[in-house]
Amino acid sequence: MPDTIDTVVLAGGGLRGLALLGALQQQLDAGRLEHVRTYAGTSVGAIIAYLLVIGFTPIELFVFFYEPEGVVFFRQVTQVDVSLVWRANGLIDMNVIAEALHVLTRRKLDTVPTLQSLHDVFQKDLVSVTFHQTRNRTEMLRRETHGDLSCIDALCRSAALPFLFTPVRDATGLYLDGAISHNFPVDLVMTLPTVRNVLAIRTQCAADYRIPGPNVMMTAHNLAMTIVHHQENHSIRTAEACCMRNSGSGLCIISVPITSVMVLGFPVNPTESFDLFSCGYQTARECGGRNRTNDEAGKSCLDPNKSTRITDGSLPADDPLLGRGHDADAARKLFHEAPEIHAEENVLLVVHPVENP
Q1: Does domain 7-355 sit in CATH 1.10.3470?
Q2: Are 127 and 142 in contact (CB under 8 A)?
Q3: How many C-beta neighbours within 10 Å does residue 247 have?
Q4: Residues 183 and 232: beta-carbon distance below 8 Å
Q5: C-alpha dist (Å) from residue 309 to 217, 289, 312, 345
Q6: How does strand 197-204 pair with strand 137-141?
Q7: Cβ contact 234:182 at 8 Å
């Protein structure tokens, strides 16, 4: 892993973003995010990126889902009738996402910043990736090109998944979720002139995994995940090639395997939420921050036969949820009252670090 990370890239994935939070918390605890100046992402990855810039820690965002406002939001985006997903105007009003972002922003700031003012205040940049359907192209919404754009507007454009959310438009046309073209935009971000050493995190289904079910929604979900899987692998290969060409740059990609949660429209109980967060944390910890050369690129630094899942209802001694006051106590209570844990056979880490001497 690069010694000094200046850029973090986060993939989209809806509810799987809980695993991203776990991985990010581990990296924060390890002191690897101190020098980050650019946070980028698609959809939920962009949302998490923004909230990190304005001062939230990953554990704070995780606990938010158990607070009254978070519970209401979580229910609105998970407990929907997915059989109605083909409605032209979408199942969920995008204002639900916008309002949740307003609530969180008010905890840290007096007003919602623009992409430019965000940089002015925090000396950090946000890059939100979206697909402009009218122009038929992927766009990176950033201060150099969209400085006057509200950060929340930029995030809504990145998260506008067709059919699920109401459409997002402006005078130039229609915006769609960035996952349409770049769910894991590490290859795009590597082209930015200020980017040198990148830590990129995503969740990933096993190549042969399929959520069981005979109905059309399960079939559509599995097909979409297959497309995203190949799309992300292409982004990784392109990013690695870019890194190889640029002397002095570094790239570390952590993939957290997920096999139990649909992207959206699937209620996640407290146990599953903790499972996702802890999986991300432990997977990132197994990476260990060890440096690698180009010859070692693509090798896993986690024994694929070693399970690091929580399967007994307990939290590991160094779990980030321990020792964090009443919020952790409340979260632990939810954990132990939840239904039985969905246990996964293995946690695998796929890391593709590339460093030039």
Answers
A1: no
A2: yes
A3: 8
A4: yes
A5: 28, 20, 9, 8
A6: unpaired
A7: no
Q: Three-class SS of residue 341?
A: coil
pLDDT in tens, the chain (357 residues): 556 899 999 999 888 899 999 999 999 999 999 999 999 999 999 999 999 999 999 999 999 878 888 777 767 666 666 655 666 577 788 888 999 999 999 999 999 999 999 999 999 999 999 999 999 999 999 999 999 999 999 999 999 988 788 889 999 999 999 999 999 999 999 999 999 999 999 998 654 455 555 566 666 666 777 778 888 989 999 999 998 888 788 999 999 987 655 555 454 667 778 888 999 999 999 875 433 323 333 333 323 333 222 222 233 334 444 333 334 444 444 434 433 322 233 223 333 333 333
pTM: 0.78
Contact present, 204 and 232 (Cβ < 8 Å): yes
CA dist 21 and 160 (Å) reads 21
Three-state DSSP state, 257: strand
* Residue among 352, 132, 136 nearest 242 (CA): 352
